[in-house]
Write a structure and sequence with these properties.
This protein is an alpha/beta fold and 325 residues long. Helix content is 41%, strand content 9%.
Length: 325
């Protein structure tokens, strides 16, 4: 068993310890978390640029180390998540933007959006892409203006309490939260910062962790409603099979159903929306051999679900085609 000892009485404690878990992460690692302001902003400005393809003559002139670096750059580009503009994603972005316009001058009872569906049907992808769209639009409308936080992205922790949810909002904003701070203090601080930062969209993911049948779940629902009343923003929720999990049951559930429009996410079917593919181009493959002619993804057996699972995503296709060469 590994144990950790704290500082002795003669040692100085870490002066940055009061900032919590952030000091345990390097700045580069912090950018990988969408539930932090730094990570979210890094996500919204990401725009992977395809690496330059060298002609065959130039490839032969590369040293083994240079060729390894060249191939690694190409593979790194393929492994980055490339989002396909599916009909579901376009519907979410269109409906979300319309709601933000309708809620712009609303004083109370603002309308919201709920994304519900089976696991792996692109709820988080659609939610984050919608938030990214709003972020880009806000930057274009207010160039060079600092201090604006147009989008907030948080997740509902498992077995969440109202204080845990409020702390998630504070963590996204980087607000220090002490153990002695009660929920009222945290909520007041979060609402004050978000109002001053002109937030327009609040994205709440993993809402299936909330159960209205429990006391804590009901309190979390009330906290979200209070946030929506205090913060002049459009709230967008996402979770797995929310209707089947009882989100719209009871008095609270009927109120949620009355204020939120629901978009059901489904697996991406093989329709005219999906084009035939041959993997990545021949020049991108390691061996240079031409790929086999086949539909992508492969034909499933009769009677099986033909929806595309996560392993058939664009990044998996690109990386797989490159390695199978």
């Amino acid at each position: 068993m590994v144990t950790m000892t704290g500082p002795t009485p003669t040692q100085d404690s870490d002066p940055g310890r009061q900032h919590g878990w952030r000091n345990a992460l390097e700045r580069e690692d912090l950018h990988r978390y969408l539930t932090t302001l730094e990570g979210w902003r890094e996500f919204t400005i990401q725009d992977p640029v395809p690496p330059e393809l060298l002609p065959a003559a130039a490839l032969t002139d590369l040293s083994p180390d240079e060729r390894l670096d060249y191939d690694d750059d190409r593979l790194d580009y393929h492994t980055r998540l490339t989002v396909a503009a599916t009909s579901t994603l376009r519907t979410v972005v269109h409906a979300g933007r319309r709601l933000t316009l309708l809620n712009r001058h609303a004083i109370s009872a603002r309308r919201g959006l709920i994304l519900s569906g089976a696991a792996g049907t692109g709820k988080t992808t659609a939610l984050t892409q919608f938030g990214k769209t709003i972020e880009v639009i806000d930057r274009r409308q207010h160039p060079g203006v600092d201090g604006r936080i147009p989008v907030v992205y948080v997740t509902v922790p498992p077995a969440a309490t109202s204080r845990m949810l409020a702390v998630e909002f504070a963590r996204f904003l980087g607000l220090p939260v002490t153990n002695r701070a009660n929920i009222t203090d945290v909520i007041e601080a979060v609402c004050g910062v978000l109002i001053d930062a002109r937030v327009s969209v609040v994205c709440v993911d993993e809402l299936h962790n909330l159960s209205l049948a429990t006391r804590n779940g009901a309190e979390v629902s009330d906290t979200l409603k209070y946030f929506s009343e205090r913060i002049p923003a459009t709230f967008v929720y996402a979770g797995v099979d929310l209707e089947a999990n009882g989100l719209f049951n009871g008095t609270r559930g009927r109120q949620i159903a009355g204020r939120f429009a629901v978009i059901d996410t489904v697996p991406f079917p093989r329709t005219t929306e999906w084009t035939k593919r041959r993997g990545c181009p021949k020049r991108w493959r390691r061996s240079g051999r031409a790929p086999r002619s086949k539909r992508w993804p492969p034909q499933r057996r009769p009677g099986a679900d033909r929806a595309f699972p996560s392993e058939w995503s664009d990044r998996g296709a690109g990386a797989g085609s490159w390695w199978c060469g």
